[in-house]
């Protein structure tokens, strides 16, 4: 076995200082390798690590032993074993997660994201592609452009990768045929154009034999280059473009060690910054100038995109985590409604209308997603009608945030255009998304200020507006108790209104059914109506099962602090079912009624309700009295 | 005019970004400090990330009582210079039972380090812990996220990791759950050495070759750092020879193999690292006790 090392061992041995000096100035290229198990992806990466001397003797002897024991290459070294790190992967011979590998050559350092190729691992590939500058698309020369080739190329393009290498692999198995290579390249070129990949570099290789990896192979005299490593070492990165763009610095943390220092820490997403630069802090829009770029090693004259810095300002202006410091004359947009492309990453599908945490840059807000406009079949790239998005599905949907965020389209800025969605209950990262553009209606619909305020309405009614939100199982007694509470409030000369679940569904919400998405929309509308009534000064009582914590919290967030009173009508399922006033449990148990809370749809009990009434121990009047006592005083 | 950031500039900026995210989003972060070179780099990065403030979290050393004397000597000094509080935790049960690497084998690591770490995190209520693990060290680490979640019982589930895209980290968790955060995940051993040189970071002298008392055990070379204690535990005299040795990684002295070397300066050490033919963890006994998947298994049990 030959050992072609990039590491110039002679220089290291004789002139280590010189070697280190040259190594210090290396840039970093991150790339992703795409291909399925059979395309020889792990073998190629193993080969790159081996050729760049990133495999040590002890690892090599372990590898040789493993290869003989469980390898798929007979007595030859199975490089794939080197990179498939998880036990499950080694047993099944597949790659199920993204692994990051490192190697270095004379000109560059490399981080390789090694991603699984199967369709069920789309999310892993998207993860690996999100940080890559370049994609190596592997093709088995015997098989040509496959469905998965198209899928991988599409995903990499979707995530904004601009440099593509088409590595036509296993050329040794087609007798190093130029015709075969040309045929595959022509085939791929047509497809690449159709999805908007402007350019790619095709290289005929054999990862297993080492052809055209580090040096031109005698087996392909018809190929003039470049070889894979040369191309990776020299492909031009978009650093200049990134630094030429206007300044964007998402603020991570405010540094206040003492009263005399107030610094704003963050990583520069684009542009450059130096003392004296005029900047604008968004979303507030206030302007100031930069006074210092502070580091441990002394102040900098200038900082550039990619660096993590701390800035101080000439003026004391409001600026905190989530704000974006931008060039004063070229600020990014601020909006709260967007068209987005989403990649769903969780077992639990998208629930349109539900509130998710959205994290973009250093901003965290609550966001809801509309039903998708369409989903994309990642194999054919056809647009499909979709009501939701399942694990690994990709779709386009409108999204709105509960407050405006600072953003740029993803095509312009990965930092200010890429986001994740987080489930509020499980805290899992459920989706990755890209903001395509903001929707005009957010810009053109303005809030019309009125002269009579909500405080005026409330003062006239001589009461503090509240929303008494009754939640509990069907048959728990919500409507009955809410009714008794309203009667008491009316006798106390209070202005009230009772919004009842069944009644609202006769009018405002008669277009809604009982699917999870419809139930969420039902609660959203009721929340908005309750909020308007509270603005009008009323004490609003609502009686809805409202089974999901996320939606109750959404309504809570709509109202001023202290005005949302969650009342948990706590009745065990057996008791509610035994009462079965409307005969609904019986229907649900027989299967005649679907999505019934407590039977085949979950009820998420409040964790910290303002008031809890136990209807097993209390009568209706006792419960109503207890609630009144708890909300006093009413003014 | 464009300025090209070097790979070290980029790795540094990434690590600082990660540390600031944790400080902004976690309630009680802590930095695990093992006194080794990776810890030294991490501590230096923390100073840079929060300057002019001192790093807004304490250091935690999960001690096994079997570390090298030189390591203990540097520990408090490093914390003081950074203006940080230092917590030292020694598993009281391991202490009481006199757990040691000779009589108890794998139990030594399990009790002192794995259990000790869990105890310390629970004791102080830390919800996010920085660790200096790198992806190039070991195969299962290559697949671990930068923000790695641990259940309330500190377990790691490799099949159920949160996707980590761009530089967005989801730090949300339920009460009792914790995060292990690895800011230098993407650094290689050579990056660490070069950064130490570039920034002039102080490290334990054991990384540099010097004449030291050594003994052989199971075909590997060890340093008799505390001969009296070694002989007491072993119940017999140990034959030691003075050799010029150094260490590529530092752990418990009876578990950390030395290499014979003349590399007495940082440049010499880097040259040796570049020309070496064995991997860094080769001197660590811990990786070998359960075959292929030993580190993955340890991590599932809560080891860092």
Written overview of the protein:
The complex is a heterodimer of chains A (635) and B (304). Chain A contains 21 helices and 28 strands. Chain A is of the alpha/beta class and 635 residues long. Chain A folds into 4 domains: 229 residues, Rossmann fold (3-Layer(aba) Sandwich), CATH 3.40.50; 87 residues, Beta Barrel (Elongation Factor Tu (Ef-tu), domain 3); 111 residues, Translation factors (Elongation Factor Tu (Ef-tu), domain 3), CATH 2.40.30.10; 178 residues, Rossmann fold. With 304 residues, chain B is an alpha/beta fold. In chain B, strand 2, helix 3 and strand 3 form a beta-alpha-beta unit. Chain B starts with 6 loop residues before the first helix and ends with a helix. The relative contact order of chain B is 0.16. About 3% of the residues of chain B have low confidence. Chains A and B meet through helix 1, helix 2, helix 4, helix 6 and strand 2 of A and helix 1, helix 2, helix 7 and helix 9 of B.
Number of helices of chain A: 21
Strand percent estimate of chain A: 25-35%
Give the end-to-end Cα distance of chain B, rounded to a whole number of Å: 43 Å
Taking the alpha carbons of the first and last residues of chain A, their distance comes to 87 Å
Level-1 CATH class name of the largest domain in chain A: Alpha Beta
Low-confidence stretches of chain B: 286-293
Looking at this structure, what is the CATH superfamily of the largest domain in chain B?
HUPs
- What is the strand tally of chain B? 10
The number of distinct structural domains of chain A comes to 4
Oligomer: heterodimer
What shape does the CA trace of chain A take?
globular
Would you tell me which CATH topology of the largest domain in chain B applies?
Answer: Rossmann fold
Largest sheet of chain A: 7 strands, antiparallel
Count of discrete structural domains of chain B: 2
**Count of DSSP E strands of chain A?**
28
Q: Looking at CATH, which topology of the largest domain in chain A would you report?
A: Rossmann fold
Average pLDDT value of chain A? 87
Strand fraction band of chain B?
A: 5-15%
Largest interface, Cβ cutoff 8 Å: A-B, 82 and 70 residues
Gyration radius over CA of chain B? 19 Å
